[in-house]
Amino acid sequence: MSDDDVTSLHALADAAGVSVDWQDAAGKPQRVSPDVLRNVLNALGIDASSPDAIEASLATLRNASDDTASHFAIGVVRQAIEVPLPDTVSTLRFRLEFDDDGGVVDGEARRKDAHTVIIPGMNLPGYHTLHIGDQVYTLAIAPARCFGVSDAIGKPQPREWALAVQLYGLRRRGASLGAPGASGGVGDFSALATLAGVAAKAGATGLAISPVHAMFTADPHRISPYAPSSRLFLNVLYVDPAEVFGQPAVARAASALGLNLDLARLEQLDMVDWPGVARTKLAILRRLFDGFPGNVGSSVSEAFTRFRQEGGSLLENHARFEALHAWRLAEGFQTGGWRDWPEAFQNPDSPEVAAFAQEHATEVTFHAFLQWLADRGLARAQAAAREAGMGIGLIADLAVGTDPGGSHAWSRQGEILAKLSPGAPPDLYNAQGQAWGLTAFSPSALRRTGYRAYIEMLRACLRHAGGIRIDHALGLKRMWLVPEGAPPTDGAYVNYPFDDIMRLIALESWRHRAIVVGENLGTVPEGFNDQIARAGMLGMDVLWFERQHHGDNAPIKSPRDWPAEAMAMTTTHDLPTIAGWWTGTDLQWRDRLGLFGDGDSLDAQMQNRARDREQLVRSLAAAGIDVSQDTDPDAPPPIAETFRFVGATPCPLAVVPLEDVLGDPEAPNLPGTTDTHPNWRRRMATTIDTLLDDQDVSRRLDALSQSRQTS
Prior knowledge:
The chain contains 24 helices and 26 strands. By secondary structure, the chain is α/β, with parallel strands linked by helices. Among the domains are: 3-63, no CATH class; 78-142, Immunoglobulin-like, CATH 2.60.40; 154-211 and 387-401 and 439-710, Alpha-Beta Barrel (TIM Barrel), CATH 3.20.20.80. α1 (3-15) runs parallel beside α2 (34-43) and α12 crosses α13 (361-387). The protein is globular.
């Protein structure tokens, strides 16, 4: 390409929100090559195949008016808001209808330019309706910041703590589904409700749970909660059928189906057998559904009718997707999802899909029924948490994207980027970068549709929660997007309407009275942490990363020096537990699976870890925490002492995973692996009712509680 052509390509990329230049995790400037830029732009639906195409695409982008098309504008309380309004509208008189109290205000806008008017600021947050001339707009007016921990707890400068839990790993009492307390080989929403009571009694104000998004019910081999079918609905394998039908009815169904031995086997396993759980639980649920509504009271069946009516087209489309996917698999088609279906079925609004739904109405209803049961179960768990005294309760986890062949992508095709996968550029921990094989929302489509899909996703995730953790929150501002089939290094950062999205998050957080946490780990844009702090979104301060300076074996920051506008954590689901880090269990896994880079070795890594253990002990001692042990990997890991250290930070919320509480050396997930490491399968060794009774466990939680109260 000539220099002029490259200049035009860069101009097009800039207009499309694609960053030509960026800084990597080490602060080194990087520039995206012309070939990669063209591939990314083409995947965005912007023709960059030739100089003429670039000029035409640039002209189209510059003349676009997405904001006007949506009739949706976003502002902040007490600040004037700009609304796109062509000067062909003669009057500037307006009427504003408030969404919550039904109030009405009349006023007059002032014109900013030929395309924009300015509406005076208003004090009431919400989704208000603006009438001006013959135009109608929705004004989303956000609070100045998100709902915070102090708002949830009702006191300034709170110092609370919460447990993080992998829901599937919880173990209830009993040997088979239908027996008192049993869950059939996987944790469920009833187990979560029970744990909420146990954790609240120990002093926890919340439970940060693994994602419970809808998976592929007909294909239970897909188990990563961060690659769901839909973020609008729930994983039905977390349903406890006894919650609605009672334990005797569930036990009778299991016996009639001859599943008692299978259920007992599943319950005794150390790992979740997802296909086995799906086969048995869905068989029982189907038998109960076949007797529905005759096997429940009228008020219960009426509740399902209301749920389905209120779910509208979103629920109907998801249920149709599940029925279609199951049908295709049953017919012998090994399909990854809707992109492998016949063309007529790829459009959820097609006559063929409608005809299928009518012909298979019972199957579609069954999947809506499963969602109803799941919704009831999650609602009950949040209610149990609040009734037990938790100020926050459940903190839901919002995955960064969905499987491109899943229900969400099928029903919202116009709002997703089908040919680009979110990921991450190369960094210190992933030298080759990452492409997660998921979908992301289209920034231009979000603006064009008034953020419809994003708002409905937030509401679904917050429906039964007191908080939300946004996975890869860096993507709210910019997302590393990789064209389908390209290596992760051949991606580029695509900018998102950060201010608008943050305002919508703040608005929904107050409407649901839920705190907001953003995972801000990775290649962080300059100023990002300050921006989310001002917006009231907590970042994540993780022990292993809070160092006094860059470089190997740097000392850990003193607790008083940790950023206060964050959630303090010992670790995450992708990082080693304290016990695993201390013994080098994570390093042994990486060596076994060949995950070390060229020239690296287990011996070298273990020697480096030994130096890091010494730094941890020194950091604990410098914080006034007595560590009466040596740094030998065979010595007991200083879990209680580390809890005390993290608890002494100024963060309003400290979170420790159940694995650390129990002293488990194994992590839930090892990034870069699928079947070679038992990701998303490990179960707790003990049942919930005795989970926190162990003397060492009590000592650890006491250390955390005391440091939260006294620091």
